[in-house]
Amino acid sequence: MSKHTTVSYSIGELAKEFDITTRSIRFYEDQGLILPTRKGQTRIYNQRDKVRLKLILRGKRLGFSLAETGRLFELYDADKSSATQLKTIMDLIAQKKNDLNQQLEDIQAVLIELTGLEKNCQDALNLIKK
What we know:
Blueprint: E1 8-9, H1 11-18, H2 22-30, E2 37-39, E3 42-46, H3 47-61, H4 66-78, H5 83-129
Antiparallel strand pairs: 1-3, 2-3
Helix pairs in contact: 1-2, 4-5
C-alpha cells in the first residue's frame, strides 16, 4: 500500500524561491489570492499556493493588478469547463493585451521624442564646441 504525501512549503521557503519578502506573501494571503492551511501559528503552503504565487508575480510583471489576478483566479476556480467563464477570462486577457499594446505605442512615441531631443542637444553642443 503506497502512502500519498502532499508536498508542502513554509513561508520562508517560498519567499526564498521567488525572491520576495514573507510580508509580500502574507499580503497576498490577506487579499485572498493564496490560502495556506495552518498548524498553530505556522502557515503551510501547498502546490496550488506555490503555482498561484508564481502566477501572481508573473501577472504583476505583465501589468495585471492584484484585483485582476484575483478575478482570473475566481473565474477559473468557479468552473473550469464553463464556456461563459472561459469567455470572460479571454475577454479580460484581450483587454490587458490591448492595454499593453497601447503602453508599448506610448513608450515607442516617447523614445522617438527623446531621441530627437538628444540629437538636438548633441547638435547644440557641437555648435558650442566650434
